[in-house]
Amino acid sequence: MSNASGWGLTARLISKHFGVLGDRISSAIANFDPETATEADRDRLADTLRATAQVLASARSSFEKEHKDVVSLRELIANDEKATATLAERLAAGKISEATVTMFCDELEANKSRLPQEIQEEADAKAYMDELQKIIDALSKQLAEFDAQAKKALQQLAAAQAQKDLQSMRAERQSQLAGLTGMKGNSTALNALTRRAQEVSNEAEGMRIVADIGQKPLDQAAEIDAIRKSVQNDTSGETALQRLQRLSGKPAAA
Protein backbone atom coordinates (compact mmCIF):
# COMPACT_ATOMS: atom_id res chain seq x y z
CA MET A 1 0.00 0.00 0.00
CA SER A 2 1.87 3.05 -1.23
CA ASN A 3 -0.82 5.74 -1.61
CA ALA A 4 -3.69 7.28 0.34
CA SER A 5 -6.41 5.18 -1.29
CA GLY A 6 -4.46 2.02 -0.50
CA TRP A 7 -4.78 2.81 3.17
CA GLY A 8 -8.48 3.63 3.01
CA LEU A 9 -9.68 0.38 4.56
CA THR A 10 -7.12 0.62 7.33
CA ALA A 11 -8.00 4.25 8.02
CA ARG A 12 -11.71 3.39 8.22
CA LEU A 13 -10.96 0.47 10.50
CA ILE A 14 -8.93 2.64 12.83
CA SER A 15 -11.40 5.50 12.70
CA LYS A 16 -14.14 3.10 13.77
CA HIS A 17 -12.25 2.49 17.01
CA PHE A 18 -10.11 5.57 17.53
CA GLY A 19 -11.59 8.35 15.41
CA VAL A 20 -9.09 11.01 14.30
CA LEU A 21 -6.09 8.70 14.68
CA GLY A 22 -7.15 6.77 11.59
CA ASP A 23 -6.99 9.92 9.45
CA ARG A 24 -3.65 10.87 10.99
CA ILE A 25 -2.12 7.52 10.17
CA SER A 26 -3.48 7.40 6.65
CA SER A 27 -2.28 10.94 5.95
CA ALA A 28 1.11 10.35 7.54
CA ILE A 29 1.81 7.26 5.46
CA ALA A 30 0.43 8.62 2.20
CA ASN A 31 2.07 12.06 2.33
CA PHE A 32 5.47 11.28 3.85
CA ASP A 33 8.31 11.34 1.34
CA PRO A 34 11.65 10.50 2.97
CA GLU A 35 13.63 12.32 0.25
CA THR A 36 11.87 15.66 0.73
CA ALA A 37 10.70 15.43 4.35
CA THR A 38 11.92 17.88 6.96
CA GLU A 39 12.85 17.16 10.55
CA ALA A 40 9.41 18.43 11.58
CA ASP A 41 7.81 15.93 9.19
CA ARG A 42 9.87 13.17 10.75
CA ASP A 43 8.84 14.24 14.25
CA ARG A 44 5.16 14.09 13.25
CA LEU A 45 5.66 10.65 11.72
CA ALA A 46 7.50 9.43 14.82
CA ASP A 47 4.70 10.80 17.01
CA THR A 48 2.15 8.96 14.88
CA LEU A 49 4.23 5.79 15.19
CA ARG A 50 4.28 6.06 18.98
CA ALA A 51 0.53 6.64 19.12
CA THR A 52 -0.10 3.71 16.78
CA ALA A 53 2.20 1.49 18.83
CA GLN A 54 0.07 2.20 21.88
CA VAL A 55 -3.04 1.30 19.91
CA LEU A 56 -1.35 -1.89 18.73
CA ALA A 57 -0.50 -2.83 22.31
CA SER A 58 -4.15 -2.37 23.26
CA ALA A 59 -5.27 -4.34 20.20
CA ARG A 60 -2.98 -7.22 21.13
CA SER A 61 -4.47 -7.33 24.62
CA SER A 62 -7.97 -7.34 23.13
CA PHE A 63 -7.09 -10.15 20.75
CA GLU A 64 -5.56 -12.23 23.52
CA LYS A 65 -8.74 -11.80 25.57
CA GLU A 66 -10.97 -12.73 22.62
CA HIS A 67 -8.79 -15.72 21.85
CA LYS A 68 -8.92 -16.93 25.46
CA ASP A 69 -12.72 -16.50 25.45
CA VAL A 70 -13.02 -18.66 22.35
CA VAL A 71 -10.68 -21.31 23.76
CA SER A 72 -12.54 -21.36 27.08
CA LEU A 73 -15.95 -21.54 25.38
CA ARG A 74 -14.89 -24.37 23.15
CA GLU A 75 -13.50 -26.30 26.08
CA LEU A 76 -16.73 -25.71 28.01
CA ILE A 77 -18.88 -26.90 25.10
CA ALA A 78 -16.67 -29.95 24.59
CA ASN A 79 -16.90 -30.89 28.27
CA ASP A 80 -20.66 -30.35 28.36
CA GLU A 81 -21.10 -32.50 25.29
CA LYS A 82 -19.24 -35.29 27.08
CA ALA A 83 -21.44 -34.80 30.15
CA THR A 84 -24.68 -35.27 28.22
CA ALA A 85 -24.33 -39.07 28.26
CA THR A 86 -23.80 -39.12 32.01
CA LEU A 87 -26.75 -36.78 32.59
CA ALA A 88 -28.97 -38.93 30.41
CA GLU A 89 -28.10 -41.99 32.50
CA ARG A 90 -28.71 -40.15 35.76
CA LEU A 91 -31.98 -38.72 34.46
CA ALA A 92 -33.14 -42.18 33.43
CA ALA A 93 -32.16 -43.53 36.84
CA GLY A 94 -34.01 -40.71 38.58
CA LYS A 95 -30.84 -39.39 40.14
CA ILE A 96 -31.23 -35.87 38.71
CA SER A 97 -34.26 -33.74 38.11
CA GLU A 98 -35.53 -32.92 34.65
CA ALA A 99 -35.38 -29.20 35.47
CA THR A 100 -31.69 -29.48 36.12
CA VAL A 101 -31.16 -31.31 32.87
CA THR A 102 -33.23 -28.73 31.06
CA MET A 103 -31.12 -25.91 32.53
CA PHE A 104 -27.95 -27.73 31.46
CA CYS A 105 -29.25 -28.16 27.94
CA ASP A 106 -30.28 -24.52 27.71
CA GLU A 107 -26.77 -23.42 28.70
CA LEU A 108 -25.12 -25.81 26.25
CA GLU A 109 -27.31 -24.61 23.39
CA ALA A 110 -26.67 -20.97 24.33
CA ASN A 111 -22.92 -21.55 24.39
CA LYS A 112 -23.01 -23.28 21.02
CA SER A 113 -25.02 -20.47 19.51
CA ARG A 114 -22.63 -17.91 21.03
CA LEU A 115 -19.50 -19.65 19.77
CA PRO A 116 -19.69 -18.32 16.16
CA GLN A 117 -20.00 -14.77 17.49
CA GLU A 118 -17.01 -15.24 19.79
CA ILE A 119 -15.02 -16.70 16.89
CA GLN A 120 -15.95 -13.72 14.74
CA GLU A 121 -14.94 -11.28 17.47
CA GLU A 122 -11.64 -13.10 17.78
CA ALA A 123 -11.13 -12.90 13.99
CA ASP A 124 -12.01 -9.20 13.98
CA ALA A 125 -9.60 -8.52 16.82
CA LYS A 126 -6.86 -10.42 14.99
CA ALA A 127 -7.56 -8.60 11.72
CA TYR A 128 -7.43 -5.27 13.53
CA MET A 129 -4.19 -6.24 15.26
CA ASP A 130 -2.67 -7.40 11.97
CA GLU A 131 -3.65 -4.15 10.23
CA LEU A 132 -2.08 -2.15 13.01
CA GLN A 133 1.08 -4.24 12.71
CA LYS A 134 1.19 -3.46 8.98
CA ILE A 135 0.84 0.21 9.79
CA ILE A 136 3.62 0.00 12.37
CA ASP A 137 5.82 -1.71 9.80
CA ALA A 138 5.01 0.94 7.18
CA LEU A 139 5.69 3.82 9.58
CA SER A 140 8.91 2.18 10.78
CA LYS A 141 10.04 1.65 7.19
CA GLN A 142 9.40 5.29 6.29
CA LEU A 143 11.25 6.47 9.38
CA ALA A 144 14.17 4.18 8.52
CA GLU A 145 14.17 5.49 4.95
CA PHE A 146 14.13 9.07 6.22
CA ASP A 147 17.00 8.35 8.63
CA ALA A 148 18.96 6.65 5.83
CA GLN A 149 18.39 9.68 3.58
CA ALA A 150 19.37 12.01 6.41
CA LYS A 151 22.51 9.98 7.14
CA LYS A 152 23.43 10.02 3.46
CA ALA A 153 22.81 13.76 3.28
CA LEU A 154 24.96 14.33 6.38
CA GLN A 155 27.74 12.24 4.87
CA GLN A 156 27.53 14.23 1.65
CA LEU A 157 27.55 17.46 3.64
CA ALA A 158 30.58 16.31 5.62
CA ALA A 159 32.38 15.33 2.41
CA ALA A 160 31.50 18.67 0.81
CA GLN A 161 32.69 20.56 3.89
CA ALA A 162 35.93 18.59 3.92
CA GLN A 163 36.46 19.41 0.24
CA LYS A 164 35.70 23.06 0.94
CA ASP A 165 38.20 23.11 3.80
CA LEU A 166 40.81 21.47 1.57
CA GLN A 167 40.33 24.00 -1.22
CA SER A 168 40.36 26.83 1.29
CA MET A 169 43.65 25.56 2.69
CA ARG A 170 45.11 25.25 -0.80
CA ALA A 171 44.04 28.78 -1.65
CA GLU A 172 45.57 30.09 1.59
CA ARG A 173 48.87 28.32 0.87
CA GLN A 174 48.90 29.61 -2.69
CA SER A 175 48.29 33.12 -1.38
CA GLN A 176 51.17 32.77 1.08
CA LEU A 177 53.50 31.48 -1.63
CA ALA A 178 52.46 34.28 -3.97
CA GLY A 179 53.16 36.80 -1.22
CA LEU A 180 56.59 35.35 -0.55
CA THR A 181 57.40 35.28 -4.27
CA GLY A 182 56.33 38.90 -4.64
CA MET A 183 58.41 39.88 -1.63
CA LYS A 184 61.42 38.13 -3.11
CA GLY A 185 61.17 39.94 -6.44
CA ASN A 186 59.66 43.29 -5.49
CA SER A 187 60.27 43.90 -1.82
CA THR A 188 60.77 47.63 -1.14
CA ALA A 189 62.82 46.83 1.96
CA LEU A 190 65.12 44.47 0.10
CA ASN A 191 65.57 46.95 -2.74
CA ALA A 192 66.44 49.69 -0.27
CA LEU A 193 68.98 47.45 1.44
CA THR A 194 70.51 46.56 -1.90
CA ARG A 195 70.78 50.20 -2.91
CA ARG A 196 72.31 51.12 0.47
CA ALA A 197 74.89 48.35 0.15
CA GLN A 198 75.86 49.63 -3.28
CA GLU A 199 76.15 53.19 -1.99
CA VAL A 200 78.39 52.08 0.88
CA SER A 201 80.47 50.04 -1.55
CA ASN A 202 80.87 53.08 -3.80
CA GLU A 203 81.84 55.23 -0.81
CA ALA A 204 84.43 52.65 0.24
CA GLU A 205 85.86 52.53 -3.27
CA GLY A 206 86.09 56.33 -3.40
CA MET A 207 87.89 56.40 -0.07
CA ARG A 208 90.31 53.73 -1.33
CA ILE A 209 91.09 55.80 -4.41
CA VAL A 210 91.74 58.91 -2.34
CA ALA A 211 93.87 56.95 0.09
CA ASP A 212 95.85 55.47 -2.79
CA ILE A 213 96.48 58.98 -4.18
CA GLY A 214 97.65 60.26 -0.80
CA GLN A 215 99.79 57.20 -0.22
CA LYS A 216 101.61 57.44 -3.57
CA PRO A 217 103.92 60.44 -2.67
CA LEU A 218 104.72 58.76 0.60
CA ASP A 219 105.62 55.56 -1.14
CA GLN A 220 107.74 57.50 -3.68
CA ALA A 221 109.63 59.38 -0.96
CA ALA A 222 110.30 56.17 0.88
CA GLU A 223 111.58 54.63 -2.33
CA ILE A 224 113.95 57.57 -2.98
CA ASP A 225 115.24 57.43 0.57
CA ALA A 226 115.92 53.75 0.18
CA ILE A 227 117.85 54.44 -3.03
CA ARG A 228 119.94 57.14 -1.33
CA LYS A 229 120.81 54.86 1.48
CA SER A 230 121.75 52.10 -0.87
CA VAL A 231 124.36 54.27 -2.73
CA GLN A 232 125.97 55.80 0.34
CA ASN A 233 129.68 54.67 0.99
CA ASP A 234 130.22 52.30 3.79
CA THR A 235 132.61 54.14 6.19
CA SER A 236 132.62 51.64 8.88
CA GLY A 237 136.08 50.24 7.87
CA GLU A 238 137.93 53.49 6.79
CA THR A 239 141.14 54.66 8.46
CA ALA A 240 141.60 58.04 10.12
CA LEU A 241 143.64 59.33 7.15
CA GLN A 242 140.98 58.17 4.72
CA ARG A 243 138.31 59.88 6.78
CA LEU A 244 140.27 63.18 6.77
CA GLN A 245 140.73 63.01 3.03
CA ARG A 246 137.03 62.24 2.52
CA LEU A 247 135.93 65.09 4.65
CA SER A 248 138.40 67.51 2.99
CA GLY A 249 136.99 66.75 -0.37
CA LYS A 250 140.50 66.07 -1.73
CA PRO A 251 141.27 62.83 -3.45
CA ALA A 252 143.33 60.40 -1.51
CA ALA A 253 147.02 60.10 -2.45
CA ALA A 254 147.94 57.18 -4.58
Notes on the structure:
The chain contains six helices and no strands. With 254 residues, it is mainly α. Helix 1 runs antiparallel to helix 2, helix 2 packs across helix 3 and helix 3 packs antiparallel against helix 4. Keywords: Coiled coil. This is PspA/IM30 family protein.
Measured by DSSP, the beta-strand proportion falls in under 5%
Let me know the number of strands. Answer: 0
Helix segment count? 6
* Rg, alpha carbons: 63 Å
Helicity level, as a percent range? over 70%
Decide which structural class fits the backbone: mainly alpha
The whole-number mean of residue pLDDT values reads 79
Short description:
With 254 residues, the protein is mainly α. The chain has helices spanning 8-18, 20-31, 39-92, 98-186, 188-231, 240-248.
Fill in the keyword field for this structure:
mainly alpha; 6 helices; 86% helix; disordered N terminus
List the SSEs and their pairings.
Layout: H1 8-18, H2 20-31, H3 39-92, H4 98-186, H5 188-231, H6 240-248
